Amino acid sequence: MTDDRSGPLSPEQESSDAADLRASLDSLSGLVGGTLGLQELLTQVATYAARAIPGADGAGVTLLRLDRTENLVDALAASHQFVSEIDEVQYKVLNEGPCISAALERRTMRSGSLGGEQRWPRFGPRVGRMGVHSVLSLPLLLPNTVVGAINVYAHDKDVFDEHAAELGELFAKPAAVAVHNAQLLAQALTLTQQLQAALASRPVIDQAIGLMRGRSGQSADEAFARLREISQSENIKLTAVAERVVDEAVRRARARRLQS
Q1: Mean of the pLDDT values across residues 233-256?
Q2: Beta bridge partner(s), residue 226
Q3: Separation CA 43–CA 90 (nearest Å)
Q4: What one-character DSSP code corresponds to residue 10?
Q5: Phi and psi (nearest 5°) for 118?
Q6: Which positions ≥6 away from 100 have C-beta within 8 Å?
Q7: How far from each other are the two terminal CA atoms of the chain, in whole angstroms?
Q8: Residue among 17, 25, 22 nearest 1 (CA)
Q9: What is the DSSP letter of 160?
Q10: What is 133-152 written as a DSSP string?
Q11: Within 10 A of 210 (CB to CB), how many other CB atoms are there?
Q12: Tens digits of per-residue pLDDT, 24-36?
């Protein structure tokens, strides 16, 4: 998709770029969080970003939790395999690169010669040796939150100009909302599943508490505290401890019945 953009853009090229952006924004607005998983939605956003930004050969979307000492990646998605390989280097190997800088500084980052880029002295040369020389990183910003960033890459040098950055920023604004909403939905679904699991496990925990009270004369709180102590000391789930107590009681009852 890389093209020659030296000199002023022709009206035809500007019109084509605007049409690509509109098509990508239309596709972005059509994403329905309830029908796609978070990973699928992020992959679609990355694909639309690569289409929206002139000169892009591929794009990636990253959800980040930022800290000055540690940057935690909640999710990664890419439009192309080479983008996944670059982001693996950026986040999991070096913890350095334009996406992290864009998110931390809350502003667009751009480079047309990654092999000699001084801002990211380890990341830049390594990616340059992979044959990728241009990057445009766009923070995904909400009023009080940095959701993550979009990385757009090209194999040639000096691909992304101010025009590309402007189009990228226009795309990143609604993309931040779509990504954040999808993230909130995924978190809500996870919480729902955890609550359902907790409700399903409650009966066996209550049974175990009753058995322990019958054997020891402990209060319900004391029996529950004992279950929790066993769970922590043996590093197994509380439900598994309760199931073991109930299973042992059932085995003893069967053994007594067979002996009688």
Answers
A1: 85
A2: none
A3: 18
A4: P
A5: -80, -20
A6: 64, 71, 90, 91, 149
A7: 83
A8: 17
A9: -
A10: -EEEEEEEEETTEEEEEEEE
A11: 15
A12: 888 888 776 557 8
